[in-house]
């Protein structure tokens, strides 16, 4: 039995001759969150579709919870939770009704809808129709829905896209709790800051190919530029100095800058994941 | 599978019941159709109401008094006769002159006035005129120019004179089709909504399979349509001597429109497209039902339309008391259409859902 | 200027909607249906089949009869089969030498077959008519001269009386349904929010959509009248009537579009409101019904003038009263349209 909950090995998919996913491979361990980052059209959604069994990979294999997908799709889906980018909720039903329906599909007979809604800060909206919900509330309900069957694998497609900070924070908290519970989480996003906060590892995907997979920390250390920004007062003027840490003599220069003037602030700066993505892909996430 | 299909059916029922307006229009339709049916006359007026005045009146009454299709009333005065014609009580009024009999007896030509309402069609004018002329020949003792055929050789098929099937009985298939098509639109709309909002995608990443989804829609669509149309038929007393034939026809019809709903729901991108598709489907469904209201056989091209078999089975079972032997060919034709349309509907919807 | 811009958009986008095709097709389909079907269903002609085995003069005489549908068939077997199936009320087989036999007084057997399902009245009509024509072979001087006198008003045939029904469908689809649908679709696509975020007001949006509906109603109304050769002899009076129709239907459409939250609800509302809009057309069809009930329907006040102008040759002076009432109804609907429009704008502001 593999410790990895999700094992993707060399999967490809082409639409009308155009390769949307090109020999992609990665793993997601139990209790791990893998951030799948890339711009629109990079192949994230196609990858998710193959993981959910909606598309059959044209090459390669997918193994989820030691079971092959899509041949064991039913068994896998019973232990998987999927939140789509689209808010595909039944808008003329209440939040409780939406959850109860999906519980029935999963065979969950003792669902505590109140507890589930409470986790996503919708405890007092259970009897309200989804049509009345704001965008953030709908997304939180989507997250509640994927937790119905206490899944071992979570696939979350842009879970906080376009949400207000409160809703985003609520969802991030749930994701972290699920990871702590031991679920393997694959999270697609084009929000680098989000990926940085939530992911144990990130995989960059662009034009159907995975460019690199590593922890955010390693990526920044390996490929990012670090520097120190010092602001000091000298002869009544505020002087700002930026010293790259990777250059020789950086330590000495920092000492000199701190000693020579009246120090006001000192900050370290490191590369963002977006900088590193640009380094690999030659383009930004929104380009 | 049963658990999942039942869960989807329960959800669809909840959704449909939330659409108060579709529910309202279905109930309104049911009520209107029933009221319309019972407001229509139960008998067929196949009588020509003829009034007569003058010396020939009694003679005419004597000759034609018991004739099927002719109702004779004798008037004392010409004015009364004219008034009756003007008031629309009579199809025609024959006013014989006082000297009618002596004039005929001498071989001279008598003039008889026939009063008709201004909008009387020529066939009646011609026939009444001919009737008067025949009476004159009769009075004059002139024999018929032909030998009348034997009574039992003249009428072909069951003789329904005096016992005609009223138009409202022939209207039943059309009412059934209207109701079934409303249900078709309702189900098609639900399916299209699930596709548009991609809730079907959310369902299909659970243990529910595409077959579960299709099975739920089929069962619910057919059951709802069948129950509604059966209630309508019961309310308009369609269940006569052949209830099982009728129920079978209605079940097949319900299945047929469910297949159409799968087709329309998977093809229409929004409500307007579904509406237009539904209208395009309603017209060929209505044509055989409309044709059933006309006397005689349907044109050959009508016989190949999907609803023809079902329509014939309903009319024959409810209005003419036809049994299984007579209805079987029509039911089999409908079954064949059901299989074809349903297969196409399933194929289109499955393909749509799997490519979302 | 903004209204013009909004109106231009309606003209650009409107023709792309399949509903516009429906607005054009429905009057055509209904006209064909009415002309070919309705007359024969409710005023069925007696149907006679004839097999002429001996070139009888009767065949030609029968074919020239008005209001009896006569068909010549090839064989007696076919005739009997079709009569039994009630494809004809009666069938007459004129055997070879029939005319000569009648003329010479041989009293040939009359091969007349009656369908068991034919109406008794039709049987009498066909029997008497056939006998009368047969008599004519032997006798050029009938004993009786029948003088037929028509009493009362001729009235209008069913096809003519169905004109208001054709008109109402034409103006409702073009004038009411299309603007209503346009409004609802904009709500569903949320493009109306984008429009209302500009200086354009809801009043202007409604006015543009209403104007489009008005123009469509007039065009489809004119089209339907020409299709039915019912334009009449007073074009300005007809245009005035159509103008009232167009405004009223556009206002109905805007009311429905403002109230309906989605397409399904709109369609349902239209079906319900349709009863109020359509019911006046029933009264010309059934002259025996108390006609005053039709006055309760707002559409009466353009349907009746259209009918009178088209069929009776009435001019503006003859129809100014109902048209004025119709115009007043249009004026009365304006504040309702505006209020509902404002409520819609308020609802949109809350939910987005």
How are the elements arranged and paired?
The complex is a heterotrimer of chains A (287), B (356) and C (352).
Chain A (H helix, E strand, L loop, with lengths): L3 E12 L2 E12 L3 E5 L6 H9 L6 E6 L2 E3 L3 H5 L2 E4 L11 H12 L6 H7 L15 H12 L6 E5 L7 H17 L2 E6 L2 H7 L2 E6 L2 E6 L1 H8 L3 E8 L2 E8 L5 H11 L1 E8 L3 H9 L6
Parallel strand pairs in A: 3-8, 3-9, 6-7, 7-8
Antiparallel strand pairs in A: 1-2, 1-4, 4-5, 9-10, 11-12, 11-13
Chain B lengths: L1 H17 L1 H20 L8 E6 L1 H10 L5 E5 L3 H9 L5 E4 L4 H6 L4 E8 L4 H19 L10 H4 E2 L10 H31 L1 H6 L5 H26 L7 H25 L3 H21 L8 H4 L4 H12 L4 H31 L2
Parallel strand pairs in B: 1-2, 1-3
Antiparallel strand pairs in B: 3-4
Helix pairs in contact in B: 1-10, 2-8, 8-10, 8-11, 8-12, 8-14, 10-11, 11-12, 11-14, 11-15, 14-15
Chain C lengths: L1 H12 L4 H25 L4 E6 L4 H7 L5 E4 L3 H9 L5 E5 L3 H6 L7 E5 L4 H19 L5 E8 L6 H4 L1 H27 L1 H6 L5 H26 L7 H25 L3 H16 L3 H4 L14 H12 L4 H36 L1
Parallel strand pairs in C: 1-2, 1-3
Antiparallel strand pairs in C: 3-4
Helix pairs in contact in C: 1-10, 2-8, 2-10, 8-10, 8-11, 8-12, 8-14, 10-11, 11-14, 11-15, 14-15
Compact description:
Chain A contains ten helices and 13 strands.
Task: Tell me about this structure.
Chain A has helices spanning 44-52, 73-77, 95-106, 113-119, 135-146, 165-181, 192-198, 216-223, 250-260, 273-281; strands at residues 4-15, 18-29, 33-37, 59-64, 67-69, 80-83, 153-157, 184-189, 201-206, 209-214, 227-234, 237-244, 262-269. Chain A has 287 residues and is of the alpha/beta class. Chain A folds into two domains: 4-220, Rossmann fold (3-Layer(aba) Sandwich), CATH 3.40.50; 225-269. A six-stranded mixed sheet of chain A has the order 6-7-8-3-9-10, sandwiched between helices. A four-stranded antiparallel sheet of chain A has the order 2-1-4-5. The mean pLDDT of chain A is 88. Chain B has helices at 2-18, 20-39, 55-64, 78-86, 100-105, 122-140, 151-154, 167-197, 199-204, 210-235, 243-267, 271-291, 300-303, 308-319, 324-354, and strands spanning 48-53, 70-74, 92-95, 110-117, 155-156. The relative contact order of chain B is 0.11. Chain B has 15 helices and five strands. Chain B is an alpha/beta fold. In chain B, strands 2-1-3-4 form a four-stranded mixed sheet, sandwiched between helices. In chain B, strand 1 (48-53), helix 3 and strand 2 (70-74) form a beta-alpha-beta unit. Chain C has helices spanning 2-13, 18-42, 57-63, 76-84, 98-103, 120-138, 158-161, 163-189, 191-196, 202-227, 235-259, 263-278, 282-285, 300-311, 316-351, and strands at 47-52, 69-72, 90-94, 111-115, 144-151. Chain C has a four-stranded mixed sheet with strand order 2-1-3-4, sandwiched between helices. Chain C has two domains: 2-38 and 157-351, no CATH class; 44-138, abc type-2 transporter like domain (abc type-2 transporter like fold, 3-Layer(aba) Sandwich), CATH 3.40.1710. The longest helix of chain C has 36 residues, at 316-351. By secondary structure, chain C is of the alpha/beta class. Classes of the chains: A alpha/beta (287), B alpha/beta (356), C alpha/beta (352). Chains in contact: A-B, B-C.
């Amino acid at each position: 039995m593999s410790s990895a909950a999700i094992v993707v090995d060399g999967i490809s998919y082409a639409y009308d001759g155009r390769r949307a996913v090109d020999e992609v491979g990665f793993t997601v361990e139990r209790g791990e969150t893998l951030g799948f980052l890339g711009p629109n059209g990079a192949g994230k959604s196609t990858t998710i579709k193959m993981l959910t069994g909606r598309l059959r990979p044209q090459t390669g294999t997918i193994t989820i919870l030691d079971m092959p997908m899509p041949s064991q799709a039913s068994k896998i889906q019973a232990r998987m939770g999927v939140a789509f980018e689209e808010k595909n909720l039944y808008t003329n039903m209440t939040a409780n009704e939406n959850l109860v329906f999906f519980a029935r599909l999963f065979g969950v007979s003792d669902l505590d809808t109140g507890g589930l809604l409470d986790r996503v800060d919708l405890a007092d909206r259970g009897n309200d129709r989804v049509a009345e919900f704001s965008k953030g509330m709908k997304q939180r309900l989507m997250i509640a829905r994927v937790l119905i069957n206490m899944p071992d694998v979570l696939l979350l497609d842009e879970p906080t896209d376009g949400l207000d900070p409160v809703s985003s924070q609520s969802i991030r908290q749930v994701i972290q709790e699920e990871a702590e519970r031991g679920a393997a989480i694959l999270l697609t996003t084009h929000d680098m800051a989000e990926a940085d906060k939530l992911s144990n590892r990130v995989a960059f995907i662009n034009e159907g190919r995975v460019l690199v997979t590593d922890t955010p920390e390693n990526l920044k250390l390996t490929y990012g530029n670090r520097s120190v920004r010092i602001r000091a007062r000298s002869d009544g003027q505020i002087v700002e100095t930026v010293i790259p840490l990777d250059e020789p003599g950086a330590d000495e220069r920092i000492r000199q800058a701190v000693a020579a003037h009246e120090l006001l602030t000192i900050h370290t700066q490191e590369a963002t994941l977006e900088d590193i993505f640009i380094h690999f892909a030659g383009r930004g996430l929104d380009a | 599978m049963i658990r999942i299909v039942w869960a989807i059916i329960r959800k669809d029922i909840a959704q449909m019941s939330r659409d108060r307006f579709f529910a309202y229009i279905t109930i309104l339709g049911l009520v209107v159709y029933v009221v319309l049916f019972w407001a229509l006359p139960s008998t067929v007026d196949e009588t020509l109401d003829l009034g007569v005045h003058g010396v020939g009146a009694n003679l005419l009454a004597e000759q034609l008094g018991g004739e099927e299709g002719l109702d004779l009333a004798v008037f004392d005065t010409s004015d009364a006769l004219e008034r009756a014609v003007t008031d629309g009580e009579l199809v025609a009024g024959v006013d014989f002159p006082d000297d009618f009999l002596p004039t005929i007896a001498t071989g001279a030509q008598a003039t008889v006035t026939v009063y008709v309402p201004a909008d009387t069609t020529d066939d009646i004018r011609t026939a009444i005129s001919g009737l008067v002329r025949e009476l004159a020949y009769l009075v004059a003792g002139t024999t018929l120019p032909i030998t009348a055929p034997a009574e039992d050789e003249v009428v072909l098929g069951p003789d329904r004179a005096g016992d005609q099937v009223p138009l409202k009985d022939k209207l039943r298939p059309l009412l059934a089709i209207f109701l079934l098509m409303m249900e078709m639109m309702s189900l098609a709309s639900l399916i299209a909504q699930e596709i548009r909002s991609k809730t079907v995608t959310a369902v299909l990443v659970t243990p529910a399979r595409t077959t579960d989804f299709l099975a739920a829609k089929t069962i619910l669509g057919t059951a709802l349509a069948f129950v509604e149309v059966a209630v309508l038929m019961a309310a308009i007393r369609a269940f006569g001597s052949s209830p099982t034939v009728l129920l079978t026809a209605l079940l097949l019809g319900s299945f047929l429109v469910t297949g159409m709903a799968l087709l329309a729901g998977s093809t229409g991108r929004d409500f307007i497209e579904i509406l237009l598709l539904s209208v395009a489907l309603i017209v060929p469904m209505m044509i055989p039902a409309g044709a059933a209201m006309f006397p005689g056989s349907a044109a050959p091209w009508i016989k190949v339309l999907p609803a023809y078999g079902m329509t014939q089975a309903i009319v024959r079972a409810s209005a003419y008391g036809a049994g299984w032997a007579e209805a079987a060919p029509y039911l089999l034709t409908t079954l064949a259409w059901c299989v074809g349309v349903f297969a196409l509907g399933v194929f289109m919807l499955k393909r749509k859902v799997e490519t979302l | 200027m903004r209204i013009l811009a909004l109106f231009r958009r309606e003209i650009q986008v409107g023709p792309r909607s399949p509903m516009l095709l429906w607005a054009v097709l429905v009057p055509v389909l209904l006209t064909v249906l009415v002309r070919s079907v309705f007359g024969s269903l409710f005023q069925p002609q007696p149907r006679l089949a004839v097999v002429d085995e001996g070139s009888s003069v009767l065949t030609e005489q029968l074919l020239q009869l008005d209001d009896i549908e006569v068909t010549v068939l090839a064989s007696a077997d076919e005739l009997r089969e079709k009569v039994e199936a009630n494809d004809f009320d009666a069938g007459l087989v004129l055997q070879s030498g029939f005319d000569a036999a009648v003329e010479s007084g041989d009293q040939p057997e009359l091969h007349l077959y009656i369908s068991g399902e034919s109406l008794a009245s039709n049987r009498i009509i066909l029997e008497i008519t056939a006998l009368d024509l047969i008599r004519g072979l032997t006798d050029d001087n009938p004993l009786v001269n029948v003088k037929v006198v028509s009493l009362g008003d001729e009235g209008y045939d069913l096809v003519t009386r169905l004109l208001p029904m054709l008109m109402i469908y034409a103006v409702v689809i073009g004038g009411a349904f299309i603007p209503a649908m346009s409004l609802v679709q904009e709500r569903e696509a949320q493009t109306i929010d984008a429009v209302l975020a500009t200086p354009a007001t809801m009043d202007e949006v409604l006015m543009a959509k209403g104007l489009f509906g008005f123009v469509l109603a007039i065009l489809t109304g004119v089209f339907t009248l020409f299709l039915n050769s019912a334009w009449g002899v007073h074009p300005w009076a007809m245009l005035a009537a159509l103008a009232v129709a167009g405004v009223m239907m556009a206002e109905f459409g805007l009311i429905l579009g403002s109230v309906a939250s989605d397409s399904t609800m709109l369609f349902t509302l239209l079906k319900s409101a349709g009863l109020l809009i359509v019911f006046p057309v029933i009264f010309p069809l059934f002259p025996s019904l108390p006609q005053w009930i039709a006055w309760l329907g707002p559409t009466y006040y353009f349907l009746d003038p259209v009918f009178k102008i088209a069929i009776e040759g009435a001019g503006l002076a003859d129809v100014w009263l109902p048209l004025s009432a119709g115009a007043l109804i249009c004026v009365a609907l304006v504040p309702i349209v505006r209020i509902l429009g404002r409520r819609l704008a308020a609802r949109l502001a809350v939910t987005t």
